[in-house]
């Protein structure tokens, strides 16, 4: 089942038994915004955390790492979810705004390359992926598949996953102009599941039987490794990355319950349940 995309307010607005406003609800409201990759993890952790911490209300919005970082800079979110590190220009903006930022790794992810299940191609090299996304390879027959046009899907440029894929897979080359940008990771999964010639990339937690994951080689085709929690953990899968919570140090006390839960044994157990790689 795909994680929800968009906005989730995790605060308990009503007392379920009485159907009235719950007078003993949250005294602290925490807003989390940003990466669609981190979104399903943040949603599940907030849901579980608030059962034992009813005094904390959490509102979570996706939209991409860039959206979260901008919101943190503007002061419209307490925590930015990020699937990439801060860019130099972003660090400079925080410095200019006199904001001291704390970055906490909450999990690790394997970035999975997905195709339609009807596609007979089961593996690609990094070089082939680069050529597909830069527009050099346009037909599946060029990589051992059927004579069919490749329909490549990507996240939007505000996405940390978009940036990470460009740096780590495309060797920092630009995406082709005809690559189809999608506003959310779930939209890529849906598009690939419905389009025979499609290819896309998603975080490991978005794995579903509706699409097929490809094995990837980073040694010119000598070794191909499939994305999984195990292969990300032992670092045999080449497209792996940390996932972050970023917040203003001035706000540390306010976000402490959320960050502490994410790093706790219970929070890290949820990391595994959602489909990502725990820190330990």
TrEMBL record:
GO molecular function: phosphate ion binding
The PBP domain, residue ranges: 23-266
GO biological process, one term: phosphate ion transport
Protein name according to UniProt: Phosphate-binding protein
CDD domains membership: PBP2_phosphate_like_1
A Pfam family reported for this protein in Swiss-Prot or TrEMBL: PBP_like_2
NCBIfam families with a match to the protein in the record: ptsS_2 (TIGR02136)
Function: Involved in the system for phosphate transport across the cytoplasmic membrane.
The entry's keywords: Phosphate transport, Signal, Transport
Chain segments annotated as transmembrane: none
Family: Belongs to the PstS family.
Protein species of origin: Flavobacterium rhamnosiphilum
InterPro entries: PBP_domain (IPR024370), Phos-bd (IPR011862), Phosphate_ABC_transporter (IPR050811)
């Amino acid at each position: 089942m795909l994680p929800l995309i968009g906005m989730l307010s995790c605060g308990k607005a009503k007392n379920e038994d009485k159907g009235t406003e719950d007078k003993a609800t949250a005294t602290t409201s925490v807003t989390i915004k940003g990466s669609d990759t981190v979104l399903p993890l943040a949603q599940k952790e907030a849901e579980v955390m608030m059962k034992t911490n009813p005094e904390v209300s959490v509102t979570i919005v996706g939209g991409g790492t860039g959206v979260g970082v901008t919101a943190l800079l503007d002061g419209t979110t307490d925590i930015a979810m990020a699937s990439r590190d801060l860019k130099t220009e972003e660090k400079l903006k925080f410095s200019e705004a006199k904001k001291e930022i704390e970055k906490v790794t909450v999990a690790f992810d394997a970035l999975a390359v997905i195709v339609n299940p009807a596609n007979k191609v089961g593996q690609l090299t990094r070089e082939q992926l680069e050529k597909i996304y830069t527009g050099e390879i346009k037909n599946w027959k060029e990589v051992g598949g059927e004579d069919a046009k490749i329909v490549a899907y990507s996240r939007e440029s505000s996405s940390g996953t978009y940036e990470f894929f460009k740096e780590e897979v495309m060797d920092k080359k630009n995406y082709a102009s005809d690559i189809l940008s999608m506003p959310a990771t779930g939209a890529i999964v849906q598009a690939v599941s419905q389009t025979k010639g499609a290819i896309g990339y998603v975080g490991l937690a978005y794995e579903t039987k509706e699409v097929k994951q490809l094995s990837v080689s980073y040694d010119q085709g000598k070794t191909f490794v499939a994305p999984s929690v195990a292969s990300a953990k032992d670092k045999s899968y080449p497209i792996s990355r940390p996932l972050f919570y970023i917040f203003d140090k001035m706000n540390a006390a306010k976000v402490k319950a959320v960050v502490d839960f994410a790093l706790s044994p219970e929070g890290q157990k949820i990391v595994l349940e959602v489909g990502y790689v725990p820190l330990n």
